[in-house]
Design brief:
about 280 residues, alpha/beta, 6-stranded mixed sheet, 13 helices
């Protein structure tokens, strides 16, 4: 679970202690305490294990970065709903409002929930990001360049490096267009279960539906996984390798400043070492 999350009701960024404080002051906690008073110890533990995780469910944002994205230091100690709705802040406000409407109290965005000045935190985040998206209750994909009547396939989101794992990792995904409308007004709680959307995703990405709906990180089909990423681009060249660490479930040092060739070389060496598949050298 990410260290920092946005509280969707108030728009404040909360560390782990603040998240716990919100829970201890919530009606859910008071109701849980009342229920526990009438249960034996085993029943209390069952209740706690069943109810507490529900409060800490969170929603992740997948998007294409644009101008004016807010950083952790921009929003720390402030309520995002009281800030200007221009640029990336408007997107962040829209994301949190949508997550709140779906009934979730917590949300995570890669723009402002990471201290990018801390190399240790960046390393931890890159190593954990696949798991965070996998464990999220919902991933909202915001397509800022797709109008309400447009097609998902026209979005630049499909051509960015980091969004590959953000498509594969989550179990539940909803696509939103530029005006924060559900794609094609689909009311399904999970667009990964909609056959028409899956057909579009498969056509646009070249990834079979079975991987889109039930993807396991690791070394299986290593060459195919590299090919899925081959036409994607990242702002920082070395990120094309780092964005695949979660997909292959490898844990390697993040060395910003190295060349893309060196980063990919380290990744390929690790894949060959673990899988024995030398065909990946010709992907």
């Amino acid at each position: 679970m990410p260290t920092r999350l946005l509280h969707t009701h108030t728009g404040t960024l909360c560390n782990r202690d603040a998240q716990v404080s919100h829970f201890l002051g919530s009606p859910q906690y008071k109701h849980l305490v009342t229920l526990c008073k009438t249960r034996d110890l085993n029943q209390q533990m069952q209740l706690i294990h069943a109810e507490v995780p529900k409060h800490f469910q969170y929603v992740t944002l997948s998007h294409r970065w644009g101008a004016g994205e807010p950083s952790l230091h921009d929003i720390e100690g402030r309520k995002i709903y009281n800030m200007s709705a221009m640029g990336g802040l408007g997107k962040l406000q829209g994301f949190c409002a949508v997550a709140c409407r779906w009934g979730y109290s917590w949300a995570w965005s890669d723009t402002c929930c990471i201290d990018k000045h801390s190399s240790a935190e960046v390393q931890e985040t890159i190593g954990s990001m696949f798991v965070w998206y996998r464990q999220s209750a919902l991933t909202i994909v915001y397509l800022s360049d797709v109008p309400d009547t447009g097609s998902v396939g026209s979005s630049e989101w499909f051509r960015r490096g980091w969004t590959l794992q953000e498509l594969l990792a989550p179990r539940t995904v909803l696509f939103y267009t530029q005006n924060w409308s559900l794609y094609k007004n689909l009311t399904s709680p999970n667009h990964k279960t909609d056959s028409a959307v899956l057909e579009e995703l498969e056509r646009e990405t070249g990834i079979e539906c079975r991987f889109l709906t039930d993807f396991s990180p690791g070394m299986d089909n290593a060459r195919s996984r590299l090919q899925w990423a081959s036409l994607r681009r990242t702002t920082r060249p070395e990120d094309i390798a780092y964005s695949l660490f979660g997909i292959f479930n490898v844990h390697l040092p993040v060395l910003y400043g190295e060349s893309a060739e060196n980063a990919l070389g380290r990744l390929l060496a690790e894949i060959v070492s673990q899988s024995g598949d030398i065909s990946v050298l010709d992907w």
